[in-house]
Write a structure and sequence with these properties.
The chain is an alpha/beta fold. It is 40% helix and 11% strand. It is an enzyme of class 3 (hydrolase).
């Protein structure tokens, strides 16, 4: 038996809205440089999102990696998402404020939060943060796995922390009330940004390094510091949750439980790093996976723990029932309905109020 999540605000702090079974989709294409123009937001995508009970998704747009010009490509991606939302006004709405999360729930629309997974599009101009804010961006992850001009990512061996420009970018994010997301960041970059930020920061999709010692997971020091300053930590549904690379729903629960023990129940949520619509043919996808992993590795964009024999998602926690199934498992763990509501979205909602305003 599980709690009923129908009345919950459910927020995926990092996820996707796409039908991965469509030939041109981000997942199916296997392209190294993926763009929002590859998204397939079709009738199934929308029906599955509604059926899942999700209220809002922080989607990745803009430059993450590759040879495209970061700033120009990011502006194109924002326009693409504006068009997607404009084409589906009954189903989708852009989230600009914390109040919009509640409004999306009331209107039974899927909230779309514009977010970056790399702030490289800032280039050397921190004032561009104001431009992005004006275009609807609400979450800015400072780095991807590599180092950029702002700081070191989780796979940068030097672990150098923030650059002077990076400090200016954090200040600009504070000024414009955008979320400072420290997912994928190196340890020093994460700790320094959390300490200098005038507003709470987040790690929207991660695991706990105390359980699995991989660079994409965060140490207890990082988790505790983010939480102590009023921030938010989202646990992902990714292979990094198990040392074998074959993560299960039980691993997701263990990482959530550890994060709650370290951070407190008011600061932990979910950022699945995956879509709601499930891949139908896992055998065919497995055949493409080795090539995708090899491309990412050759480009220096992969993280330790990415392998051709592991899926970049949790097989038994996917599809339209993923949030209900997680609620059921957390109930079995002994969590109360109020704690589960916090984890599924209320904590993100409260964090959004602190950063974006009401």
């Amino acid at each position: 038996m599980s709690v009923d999540i129908a009345d919950f605000i459910v927020v995926n702090a990092l996820g996707g809205l796409d039908n991965p079974n469509a030939p041109a989709s981000l997942t199916a294409s296997g392209a190294l440089v993926q763009t929002s123009e590859q998204l397939t937001v079709d009738a199934r995508t929308l029906a599955d999102a509604h059926a899942s009970g999700v209220t809002a998704i922080n989607v990745t747009l803009g430059y993450t990696m590759g040879d495209l010009p970061p700033y120009e490509h990011t502006l194109d991606e924002i326009r693409t998402w504006d068009a997607i939302i404009g084409s589906h006004p009954r189903d989708l709405m852009r989230i600009d404020t914390a109040a919009d999360l509640a409004e999306a729930k009331r209107q039974r629309r899927i909230g779309i939060i514009y977010g970056f997974q790399n702030a490289a599009a800032v280039e050397d101009r921190a004032e561009r943060i104001g431009t992005f804010a004006g275009l609807g961006v609400r979450v800015v992850q400072l780095t991807y796995n590599q180092a950029n001009q702002i700081g070191d990512g989780s796979m940068a061996p030097e672990n150098r922390g923030l650059t002077p420009l990076g400090r200016d970018v954090v200040a600009a994010l504070n000024e414009h009330r955008l979320m400072v997301d420290l997912s994928h960041s190196g340890e020093r970059t994460c700790l320094e940004a959390a300490r200098i930020s005038a507003q709470p920061v987040s790690i929207n999709h991660t695991g706990c390094r105390a359980l699995v010692d991989l660079p994409r997971n965060k140490t207890d020091e990082e988790l505790r510091l983010v939480a102590s300053r009023g921030g938010f930590v989202g646990i992902y549904f990714m292979p990094f949750l198990n040392a074998s690379g074959h993560a299960t729903a039980a691993d997701v629960v263990e990482h959530i439980a550890h994060a709650v023990n370290v951070c407190g129940e008011d600061h932990v949520g979910i950022g699945t790093d995956g879509t709601i619509t499930a891949i139908d043919d896992l055998d065919a996808y497995r055949d493409r996976l080795a090539e995708q992993v090899a491309r990412r590795r050759a480009a220096g964009a992969s993280a330790a723990g990415e392998r051709s024999d592991t899926y970049p998602f949790v097989v038994d926690l996917r599809g339209v029932d993923q949030f209900r199934e997680l609620a059921r498992l957390l109930t079995e763990r002994g969590y109360s309905a109020s704690r589960i509501e916090k984890i599924l979205g209320l904590n993100f909602h409260h964090y959004a109020k602190a950063v974006w305003g009401r």
